[in-house]
Design a protein that fits this description.
Keywords: Hydrolase, Metal-binding, Zinc. By secondary structure, the chain is of the alpha/beta class. It has helices at residues 42-52, 72-79, 90-93, 96-103, 172-183, 202-208; strands spanning 9-15, 20-26, 32-36, 55-60, 82-86, 115-117, 129-132, 141-145, 150-154, 157-158, 161-162, 191-194, 200-201.
């Protein structure tokens, strides 16, 4: 009996002092991978890549708050992978050291992003697209993998919650619009990987999220 090969390799695990969810997305054929939000523990992330036999070619960020980047510089140094961010969050990236100081987190220098992410841009490995979903920050991005019914929402959407909008550049009207117009129009059966905490199901959030409901 033939074994069906998964269309994507996906592993999500918390990293760093603020337990940001880092996600590895790999192509089982080419063995190329992207890493989303390496928020610390670079050795752990590299070990998981090695376990799956993957080579990271692209490091992408849902946004530029400190807890989503802490291992980015080290990983770029070790792998040569390119760093990606939406340009609207450049002001946050330029002030990463200040953010770390405010939260009492050791700062590890990170080079400037290699490329700016664009709305509807195809991601490395050709397995997904970037969606600009501002609100938590001006440059917040979500990543949609249609074939796998997988949405990486960063700090835009949580299980029965949404991202806070009281930090630098946050805007409640924008996050509400992003969730309703960009995320809630996707497949209800999709698994949502959040920036912190457990996965959820998109249809459940559309109906039961107490902050933003579909059609409300």
């Amino acid at each position: 009996m033939a074994v069906t090969q998964p269309m994507l390799i996906r592993e999500t695990f918390p990293v760093g002092p603020l337990q940001c969810n880092c996600t590895i997305i790999g192509d089982p054929v080419s063995k190329k991978a992207i890493v989303v939000d390496p928020g610390g523990d670079p050795e752990k992330i590299m070990a998981r890549l090695d376990f799956h036999g993957l080579k990271v070619v692209s490091i992408i960020h849902t946004h530029a708050h400190l807890d989503h980047f802490l291992a980015s510089g080290r990983m770029k140094e070790q792998t040569g992978a390119t760093l990606h961010l939406h340009k609207a969050d450049q002001f946050l990236w330029d002030n990463l050291e200040m953010q770390c100081r405010m939260f009492g987190v050791p700062y590890t220098p990170v080079p400037a992003p290699d490329q700016w992410l664009a709305d509807d841009e195809e991601l490395a490995c050709g397995c997904g697209v970037a969606l600009h979903t501002p609100g938590h920050t001006p440059g917040s991005m979500s990543f949609w993998f249609a074939d796998a019914k997988l949405l990486i929402a960063g700090d835009t959407l949580f299980r029965r919650g949404i991202g806070r909008t009281d930090l630098w550049g946050g805007d409640y009207a924008s996050i509400e619009r992003s969730i309703k117009q960009r995320l809630y129009t996707l497949d209800e059966e999709a698994t949502v990987v959040t920036g912190h905490g457990p996965d959820t199901r998109l249809g459940d959030e559309m109906r039961d999220n107490p902050f933003v409901r579909a059609g409300a």
